[in-house]
Amino acid sequence: MTIVPEGVFHWFLTLVTGGFAGLWVIHDLVFLIRLAGADRRDPLVADKWFGYVLGMVMGLIGVLGALRFNGVLAG
Which of 4, 6, 27, 66 is the most buried (most CB within 10 A)? Predict the structure, then answer.
């Protein structure tokens, strides 16, 4: 006996994973845009820039994984 049907669980995982990852990309993109005018030679600015770009890469991996999980992207 299952609690929810497989399709519901499938879409729940997609929305949670892909949604969270997509929001993470947008969040880091906004902070990266705010950081655009700062001096990149400053170590604190460079560290923030690196962190935001890495966060966006991880978010994109999550979004692409959710799309592949649903068969939108062939793999």
Answer: 66
